[in-house]
Predict the structure.
Amino acid sequence: MPHLSTYVGLADHSEKTLAESFRAVADGHAQAADVFHTCHMLAQWSENHREGLKPIVERYGEDADVDEPERLHADGLAEVRPGEIGLLRDLQDLHVLADLVQTTWTVVLQGAQGLRDHELLDVAISANAETSRQLSWLNTRMKAAAPQALIVDPKE
Amino acid sequence: MPDRIADIWGERTPHAKGTVWPARVDLHLDEGVEEQDVDRWVQSACLLCSNGCGCDIAVKDGRMVGVRGRGTDVVNHGRMGPKGLYGSTPWASSPDRLTRPLVHEGGRLVETDWQTAMGRIVDESKRLLDENGPLTHGFYTSGQMFIEEYYTLAVIGKAGLGTPHMDGNTRLCTATSAAAFKESFGADGQPGSYTDIEHCDAIFLYGHNMAETQTVLWMRILDRTRGEDPPKVVCVDPRRTPVAEEAERTGGVHLAPRVGTNLALMNGLTRELFHNGWTADVWVAEHTIGVDDLRKVVEPYTPEKVAEICGVEPHDLRRAAAIFGQSKSVLSTVLQGFYQSHQATAASVAVHNLHLLRGLIGRPGSGVLQMNGQPTAQNNRECGADGDLPGFRNWNNQKHVQELADLWNVDPLTIPHWAPPTNAMQIFNYAEKGSIELLWISATNPAVSMPESSHIRKILSGDQCFVVVQDLFLTETAQLADVVLPAAGWGEKTGTFTNVNRTVHLSDKAVDPPGEAKSDLDIFLMYSEAMGFTDRDGAPLPTWSTPEEAFDAWRAATAGRPVDYTGLSYDKLRGPTGIPWPVNEEAPEGTDRLYTDPVFPTDTDQCETYGHDLLTGGTVTEQEHRAMAPNGRAFLKGAPYTPAHELPSDDYPLLYTTGRTVYQFHTRTKTGRSSSLHEAAPDAWVELSEQDADNLGIREGDVVSVESPRGAIEVRARVGNVMPGAVFAPFHYGSWDLEDVAPDQQHRLANELTMTVWDPVSKQPCFKTAACRVTKVRAGDGPAPAPTTAASAPARKGSVPETAGGEPTTSEVLTETPDYPNDPAAGTAHPAPTGTIAGRS
Ligand code: SF4
């Protein structure tokens, strides 16, 4: 099952990238207390998804060598941008990453269904649901930050 | 002549379950004034805590000289507590009242006239509007203004200026109460009533030291627990408070969870209901949504697991759950121990869950009271000068926004509704960055009351933001302002306000404000006129100019909403008692309790919010809400426990928690100017358990340093009744009355240590979850200045002199209990003992 293992690998990899990026945004915008604490919590969720995936990875192997999905890999956020507009753009980047994670889980979920693999199905369903919550927080936070950032963000 | 400092709750009037609470009229007059000397009595209600006791103000020679409880009022049946008796009027004639506007010039504040002061504000305001638009403006209000003032400010801010940056001090005290109601029932609004006290079989107080925070309500409970067929009391509190003692005395339980672990405890109680079959399954299926998810969420929280997290004995948890699960009716009350702690909204929602699972709501004796700090705070929630829209409207619902736009005759796009209005913490964050460039603070003192207070002072004193402060005194905050406006206080202006159980009172103007001070309403109207705010047709906005006109406009704004004032008027409120909303054609005399049907305002088109993820605060979308089709069913929502943001470490091994004392209110603006109250609790202190004090070599009265990663205070130690591992500090003490202390020496300001972190749903800051260390600075020369009469009593009774010394008061138990409209026990009053009570109970 070469392609399933590719997508399992992609799920694992993109959750890792997302977790690291959440942490980078948390620490880079530490003065925004809610961003700091929530992003750390959401990073932990992504770590937990990877934990859940571990036995599956052991079973199917993890394959990141196939060309096609490789292009789907997104780079994480190595560093954050300053100011309100910077926060907004960082949140947006996180949203893109989380979106990639979610579609990956959707694809894995389909595979798990086809294989009637209950263990993978459980992991994919719960991770998919939590990714939705990550996305909904990002969306909420961006909406709150946008007007101020777009209209009156003071020059740094 | 009871000394109500020594005797906080006064004489008991015990009575049996299901009978009307007897009336007792409490009175305090200034020294040398007798009842017959009083020129006039002016109708009002006390606003020094959320109980909102009906009272009359005594006026003599144009001065307020005392107060008397109103025996006919449904809220207090004539009683008043120490704060109301001693603290209601002395501040008004204090020589340090602000009487003229002040402006910042040459590094200091100098007196000026109104024209100059308002001119500066308007120039700045217009310049900013031209340059960058309304998002440059922020308003931080109090919990202490009247409906008329909040609503007027809401209209000016949301329709005149169009800024989303409006919040109040209420964010620090009642935001979680409102948020929890919205999550469970779809809209804000207190379901229960104080009359539940007369009918319940058990009372649960969650993080609520009612004996000190709402003394008159506690009298009401004591009169049940000391009467026939008393209810059992269950207390959740890390301190051994008078409530905890009453819990043990009544055969209830005192649960003392570790600070920051409330949700784990609540999950444990909920699980016990499921596992013991104490759930009303048919009712739950008909009237709620989400039970299966909730069952899953709480399943891991066995009593043993809860013991591990919270430090509460498994059999205590089981006993508390059994009392909840097996009592015929239960009243729950919640306060800051939950609201200002970790996972605040989730823990408060869990209280609703317990009631919903048993179907204990909407019936006499089965109520939930999510408390507030002050009666006027409720009005900020209703009128929308805080992070809500007026009339419990949903910012996410275009129709609700359109209703407001029609009411105000403005373009709906003027009303900012792209996201929830900005919360207080974020407002200060924007002010720090300089993207809010004009911050208008009315009747509150954030330099003392906000978390990490040194940070707040830095923001206010910087050049990046123009600060307007409107207050009665030159508070710590006012000292940092660019313009200070002198305001009229309670008794010096007319307006209405609403207490915790929805009872609306009218407070009439008794005396003139000093000097050139003006009512908050007049100040806001002066600003809007000078700014030239108009509606679509060029008419002035707002259209009113008197309190009564403002109230009528507000009534119109509540039509068709759960918070319905349409049946009220000033005339009606000048009757014998306050009246609880909704008041309308169907309920002309008001409504004792909500959800008697039980239909909840959760319908997608009606609700105040579509809800949130309790862990992250992410908002539920309209489509998601519609898909759940709640249609009048209440939500059962759960969340797993997560550890608090700052846990004890080797460096900071103790848990730091803050709270109130019975004799002070807010930052003591009023109570600190009453000698009876001031002397009862004159200075800050910290409480340590005997065990921790021993380990640290600290004795009663020693001066200690308490440090967190953010700051330190130096105060005297009370070896008291806080649980081992925790340290308690009262938050009231700033620096205004310390003449001998340099202004930068904030040695006793509890919020120097607290964290800038807030609940994801209610955005209420966590004042109760910091870590700290305590070290002895020097030996003391006497006991700590903490009162001995309530929760801060010393661990060893009698080891320090008892707190006493309040001026004389009188208390008269009425021979005939008046009729209270809506009281389900009406007609059951027993004749009570009579006469003026001398001495202590
Ligand atoms: S209980 Fe509250 S409202 Fe009543 S008198 Fe005391 S402080 Fe005032």
Remarks:
- Chain B touches chain A at residues 132-133, 135-136, 164, 416, 418-420, 422, 425-426, 429-430, 433-435, 464, 613, 615-621, 642, 645, 755-758, 760, 763 (CB under 8 Å).
- Chain B is about 30% helix and 15% strand.
- Confidence is low (pLDDT under 50) at residues 741-745, 833-841 of chain B.
- The CA atoms of residues 693 and 699 of chain B lie 7 Å apart.
